[in-house]
Design goal:
Elements: H1 3-7, H2 11-25, H3 40-47, E1 55-59, H4 71-76, E2 79-84, H5 87-96, E3 101-104, E4 106-107, E5 113-118, H6 130-136, E6 145-152, H7 154-159, E7 169-172, H8 178-182, E8 194-198, H9 210-219, E9 222-228, E10 231-236
Parallel strand pairs: 1-2, 1-7, 2-3, 4-6, 7-8
Antiparallel strand pairs: 5-6, 8-10, 9-10
């Protein structure tokens, strides 16, 4: 039995393992210049350099520090809503990002029951998108698990959190369904200034919905600020 499986068997040891993951394995107690995988957070931080306090929403948040695009904003004093379909991710956020609102949910416009393709407790590629799963299974999903989960719409989540009447920054990384999430959010209503969304695969190829994302954001008055790795950052004009 692996150390992780042993610690996951009981609630007290499970929480101990979460602290180990946060503060020993990923050294969350150290202040770093950047936390994102490709440097996206440096671009985001620079864009908001004159905004002392703001609001963000991070859909597909994954981990409070690792590959994270919002922790520099959190450290600055911002507050966010972090959403992920993996309960382990949300438990990590509840420890490390207690000022934020952390929600375990899949996202679907109709709020239906959806199927999760689950790569693991600490995996960044857990997904609802069967096409993404099929494309990625040669590298990931070696111990695939599937289960069903109730989904919520972004609208319902925001209705439950009226303090987020304006959302300065939106980060979306949901492994294949990014456009489906993006189009649920009324960027004009929330006066959003910046959107970071995964538009490419790591190999540089465009995701299947890239042109839809580009057209949707252009029509709302957004233009590309910068492409960083697989992420494109759009700013409101």
């Amino acid at each position: 039995m692996s150390l992780k499986k042993f610690f996951f068997r009981w609630k007290p040891t499970y929480k101990t393992y979460l602290y180990y993951n946060l503060y020993l394995r990923h050294r969350g107690f150290l202040k770093k210049k950047r936390y994102s995988q490709w440097g996206e957070d440096l671009e985001i931080q620079d864009f908001f350099k004159d905004t002392k306090v703001g609001k963000f929403i991070d859909v597909g948040c994954f981990h409070p520090f690792l590959f994270n695009n919002t922790f520099l904003l959190y450290r600055k004093g911002w507050q966010g809503i972090n959403i992920d379909l993996n309960q382990v991710s949300i438990d990590l956020f509840n420890i490390a990002r207690s000022r934020d609102i952390n929600i375990c949910s899949a996202i679907s416009e109709k709020g239906k029951t959806v199927k999760v393709y689950y790569d693991g407790e600490f995996s960044s590629v857990n997904t609802l998108d069967i096409d993404f799963y099929k494309k990625s299974k040669e590298v990931y999903f070696k111990d695939l698990k599937t289960y069903e989960i109730e989904a919520r719409s972004i609208q319902d989540i925001l209705k439950d959190n009226p303090a987020f009447s304006e959302i300065d920054f939106i980060n979306i990384d949901v492994e294949g369904l990014d456009y489906e999430v993006l189009k649920q959010i009324d960027l004009k209503k929330y006066k959003t200034k910046l959107v970071a969304i995964e538009t490419h695969y790591v190999d540089g190829l465009e995701i299947k919905e890239y042109q839809k994302i580009l057209t949707h954001l252009n029509n709302l008055g957004f233009s590309i600020l910068k492409k960083v790795g697989p992420t494109t950052i759009f700013k409101s004009n």
